[in-house]
Amino acid sequence: MNDSISAGLRPFPIGLWVPPPAHEVSVESYKDIRDAGFTFVIGFREIEHGEEAVIHALDCSLANGLKYIVSDPLVKNLDVTELSVLEPLVSPFSSHPAYMGHLFYDEPGTDQFDRLAALARTYESHVPGGLAYVNLLPDYASAQQLGTDAYADHVEMFLRTFKPKVLSYDYYPLRMDGSVKATYYANLWTIREACRLHQVPFWLFIQAIGFNGTYREPNEAEIRWQVNVSLAFGAKGIQYFTYWTPEPANGETYGEALIRMDGSKTSTYRNVQIVNREVASVGPMLQSLQSVGLLVSGDALPGVEHAGRSFGPVTDLEGDPVIAGCFASGNRPHSLFVVNRDYARPAESVVVFEDNRRLTIRLDPGEGKLIPLTP
């Protein structure tokens, strides 16, 4: 590993949606979050129990080396005529050492972008190091939800208007009938390309629960596949939907997440813990590099443009279908992150080099391996 790169590596961001409910928040319950490999928590409804409940969650985060994003409906719903109210809403929390930022909106339409941008600029003037966190819709949202007919336009408008420090979005690909949603790769490509042009890192959500009788509970290999495909496309952070099993609400029904409603762990907790350990070993390196392209073997990925078969000293990929993320350092080829496109069967891929060397890689279902291209 290049010493100049490895010296500056940071922990890879791994977050969660739906933390323990306020009455379950403790140093011990947040230790379970840390032990599963998470680095930050997105608050949910703690504020309903008062500022003290949020401070308690921040304290429990700090005790476990976690960061915490505050969720407050009063902030989310502020009008542009109420910008002066923002500072007293965030100041009780923003100086806490575990504070990471505030949740400004989950899945806004384009009609919200100008208002949210005005709030974010005001927020950043008071909390320069804070994260004004917004999570975008997937491309299978309706035109009415998006506020535009074209998903790429929705993403571009958000980047130009809101100017985020990081773009987050959700997409839940694993359907109950055993299939994967048809636009999964296309949505990743749209986000990747837009963020590349705007030089903004992107995070996305990993499906970790079955819900609404439509989306299935993923097994370990399916979790690994979602994570590693995301890394190959250049994601700089991942988040899980969900950590704690939510109560049914607004017509939504849920299976069991990492933690049941009674606080006990499911097998998904262990599966995520295993995958997050793998991410912790490879993610910091990928985070430090520039994602500069994709190599694809097998059938073309629907909706993905400009995927190739060569990068730097690599002239071809042979064997079973894989996705290889291309990563550079200082505009020089550095690594390939090769991922098995299949989450049900192992794969064997051959990386062919320009000097006729051939490297055979064996991958478990959904597995990814980092292949250095420099000495």
Can you tell me about this structure?
This is Glycoside hydrolase family 42 N-terminal domain-containing protein. It comes from Paenibacillus glycinis. The protein has 375 residues and is α/β, with parallel strands linked by helices. It has helices spanning 3-6, 27-35, 51-63, 73-76, 86-94, 113-126, 143-146, 151-162, 184-198, 220-232, 267-288; strands at residues 14-17, 40-42, 67-71, 99-106, 131-136, 167-169, 202-207, 237-241, 290-296, 314-319, 322-329, 332-340, 347-353, 358-363, 368-372. The chain has an eight-stranded parallel sheet with strand order 1-8-7-6-5-4-3-2. A hairpin with a 2-residue loop joins β11 (322-329) and β12. The model is unreliable at 1-7 (pLDDT under 50).
Task: Annotate the secondary structure layout.
Elements lengths: L2 H4 L7 E4 L9 H9 L4 E3 L8 H13 L3 E5 L1 H4 L9 H9 L4 E8 L6 H14 L4 E6 L6 H4 L4 H12 L4 E3 L14 H15 L3 E6 L12 H13 L4 E5 L25 H22 L1 E7 L17 E6 L2 E8 L2 E9 L6 E7 L4 E6 L4 E5 L3
Helix pairs in contact: 2-3, 5-6, 6-8, 8-9, 10-11
Summarize the structure.
The chain is α/β, with parallel strands linked by helices and 375 residues long.
Q: Features of this protein?
A:
alpha/beta, TIM Barrel, 2 domains, eight-stranded parallel β-sheet, 11 helices, 32% helix, disordered N terminus
Biggest sheet overview: 8 strands, parallel
Which structural class do the helices and strands define? alpha/beta
CATH-derived architecture of the largest domain: Alpha-Beta Barrel
Strand order of the largest sheet: 1-8-7-6-5-4-3-2
Just give the CATH class of the largest domain.
Alpha Beta
The quaternary state of the protein chains shown equals single chain
InterPro entries: GH
Protein name: Glycoside hydrolase family 42 N-terminal domain-containing protein
Organism: Paenibacillus glycinis
